[in-house]
């Protein structure tokens, strides 16, 4: 397993009226992040928050190219980002222990925190299609260039971990500074990871490290 230290290249927040940052996602232009009773939209260039959607938002967040998805109270809500309307809901697999959320290849990928698992879900029904085991708590999930990554946070130690999506093997670990939590994880599709900072109320940007192994852990067919 390849190990490295996280390079934090930018921090945003804390934000007025937001006691903690939970899940987050990136729509290609702005970062949406969950702060309990609403989603906030952050411009990563200026650092300004430009919009909010009033919706229960206390865990993972995802974007499928058109809709937002938000975990809250044991369910996953599908949201129209334009109107803020909740279009539909499906059950979340962890019955309230759900954490990270990501979209990849037509599926939702949900972290189940204490069970140390990542589930691939049918986004229409919530049916679990497959499960990947991790050796650490799961606090955020993202895919980038066929690589599966998740955040973990136990005691004062946090990491970003790349897993082989077929076997669950840890391919690399990026260690965050001591005392820096990771409560959500999303890639910008290129060289940046956006990380929720939990009760610090911050969003942090971490430099994506070089690949651990060529073509490892592609999204399963």
Care to give the gist of this entry?
By secondary structure, the protein is mainly β.
Describe the SSE topology.
Layout: E1 2-5, E2 8-12, E3 24-26, E4 31-34, E5 36-42, E6 49-57, E7 61-63, E8 68-72, E9 75-79, E10 86-91, E11 98-104, E12 107-112, E13 117-121, E14 128-133, E15 140-144, E16 147-154, E17 157-163, E18 170-175, E19 184-187, E20 192-196, E21 203-207
Parallel strand pairs: 1-18
Antiparallel strand pairs: 2-21, 3-4, 4-5, 5-6, 7-8, 8-9, 9-10, 11-12, 12-13, 13-14, 15-16, 16-17, 17-18, 19-20, 20-21
What does this structure look like?
It is a single chain. By secondary structure, the chain is mostly beta strands. It has a single domain (2-207), classed as 7 Propeller (Methylamine Dehydrogenase, Chain H). The chain is built from no helices and 21 strands. The protein has strands at 2-5, 8-12, 24-26, 31-34, 36-42, 49-57, 61-63, 68-72, 75-79, 86-91, 98-104, 107-112, 117-121, 128-133, 140-144, 147-154, 157-163, 170-175, 184-187, 192-196, 203-207. A five-stranded mixed beta sheet has the order 1-18-17-16-15, with no helix packed on it. It is globular, with a radius of gyration of 16 Å. The mean pLDDT is 94.
Task: Give me some keywords for this one.
four-stranded antiparallel β-sheet; globular; five-stranded mixed β-sheet; 52% strand; single chain; Methylamine Dehydrogenase, Chain H; 21 strands; 221 residues
């Amino acid at each position: 397993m390849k190990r490295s230290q996280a390079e934090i290249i930018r921090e945003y927040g804390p934000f007025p009226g937001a006691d903690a940052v939970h899940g987050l996602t990136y729509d290609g232009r702005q970062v949406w992040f969950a702060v309990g009773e609403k989603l906030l939209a952050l411009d990563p260039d200026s650092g300004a928050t430009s919009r909010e959607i009033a919706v229960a938002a206390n865990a993972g967040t995802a974007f499928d190219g058109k809709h937002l998805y938000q975990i809250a109270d044991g369910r996953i809500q599908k949201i129209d980002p334009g109107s803020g309307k909740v279009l539909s809901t499906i059950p979340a697999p962890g019955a309230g222990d759900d954490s990270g959320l990501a979209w990849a290849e037509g599926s939702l990928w949900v972290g189940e925190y204490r069970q140390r698992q990542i589930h691939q879900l049918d986004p229409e029904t919530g049916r679990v299609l497959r499960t990947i085991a991790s050796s650490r708590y799961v606090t955020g999930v993202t895919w980038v260039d066929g690589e599966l990554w998740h955040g973990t946070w136990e005691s004062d130690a946090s990491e970003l971990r790349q897993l082989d999506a077929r076997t669950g093997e840890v391919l690399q670990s990026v260690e965050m500074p001591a005392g820096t939590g990771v409560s959500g994880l999303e890639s910008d599709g290129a060289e940046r990871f956006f990380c929720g900072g939990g009760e610090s109320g911050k969003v942090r940007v971490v430099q994506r490290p070089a690949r651990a192994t060529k073509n490892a852990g592609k999204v399963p067919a």
